[in-house]
Amino acid sequence: MRALAAAFALAMLAAPAAASPVLLISLDGLRPGDIAEAKARGLKLPALTALRDEGAAARGVIGVLPTLTYPSHTTLVTGVAPARHGVVNNLTFDPEQKNQSGWYWYAADVRVPTLWQAAHAAGLRTANVHWPVSVGAAGIDANLPQIWRTGTDDDAKLLTALATPGLVARLERQVGRRYPQGIDETVEGDAGRVAFAEALLAEKPQFMTVYLAGIDHAEHQAGPGSLVAKAAIEASDALVGRLVRAARAAMPDVTVVVISDHGFLPIDTDINLFRPFIDAGLITLDAKSQVAGWDAMPWLAGGTAAIRLARPDDPALIAKVRGVLATMAADPAYRIARILDRSEIAKAGGGDAGFVVALKPGSETGRDPAAPIARPSVYKGMHGYVPWEPAMRSTLIVAGPGIPRHGDLGVVDMRGIAPAIARRLGATLAGAEAPPAF
């Protein structure tokens, strides 16, 4: 009987359901174990555990290369790996620092259709609060995109100019407060944005995305499993509860999907990958120690770094860089777990780098070219490691009409989440690289 019941539950999960509105909530950095083992970890998560118990959850989600916020969130709304959607890091590649630490804020960089476009094409009304890579995104009817520059009042003007015309002013009057600055990644900033999301949910968008950054912020600053991180998770759980109540009050048949983009590891060491490239003449510095020229450049991604080549098809340059990397990998001080070549990067769905340096857990790529090889890390927690590192697995919970209680989705491919959401919406998402995850 148990086997029959399990088979029936899996069949229900696999069968297309009637079209349902979808609320997609991202909790940046939430580890699946923080829900599955909440009691053992001393966490009280009534909203998240209730959603899990009334619906289905994954044991973990295998993410993308690199396991960073912006590549992952773009995969979550496209169903394809970074190699295809084009957002291959958080920050744009900027070796001479001319872009002033600019991130991949703009949806113009996304090369494939998104869920917002698919929903819009199906005649559905869409909304967004703070989702990464959403500035100028097509298909969003009410868009509060994620962007920041300085954290000054000019950022508020910038957001107002880039959001759906008139939306910020209208919602600020309705909510009775200013919309939080994009640079504010705290739980308090999230709470402010949730108030605006509640106002939008009352308008019954049939597909809505909401991004909350507070857990990730706390885990970077204090480390995963820290008291600070636990407090952020519990506070975020309360915010999820608010969003779910608002969504269900407006749309009783709503499907709620809660995801995260990556896991987390505690770290203690910054590794300087720049020095060997400078010493080999692959990077040249000016009198102010700024990059004046480069043939090969590490593009940092937390637990990994993509090595970009100025001439990707130059055999002599490839051989020289390979030699530098082999010497580094042989030195235990660099804490290198593995060097991926171009074919391995392509197989993993990464970008167009010549190589990827994957660090061992406990280390991150340091930002100071003048630093020693290894020194105490700035952060206490990090991600960006290779997606097959188990600690990088992320979270998926889904609850809604037709989703059986206590469903077990197993281990999920992140690329399967977007097509599953499209199916729930009754929309068509072209080109997804994995079958629907639920």
From TrEMBL:
Presence of the UniProt keyword Signal in the record: yes
InterPro entries, per database record: Alkaline_phosphatase_core_sf, Phosphodiest/P_Trfase
Signal peptide (residue range): 1-19
GO molecular function: hydrolase activity
Gene3D superfamilies: Alkaline Phosphatase, subunit A
Keywords, ordered alphabetically: Signal
Superkingdom of origin: Bacteria
Protein name as annotated: Putative AlkP superfamily pyrophosphatase or phosphodiesterase
Protein's organism: Sphingomonas jinjuensis
Taxon lineage: Bacteria, Pseudomonadati, Pseudomonadota, Alphaproteobacteria, Sphingomonadales
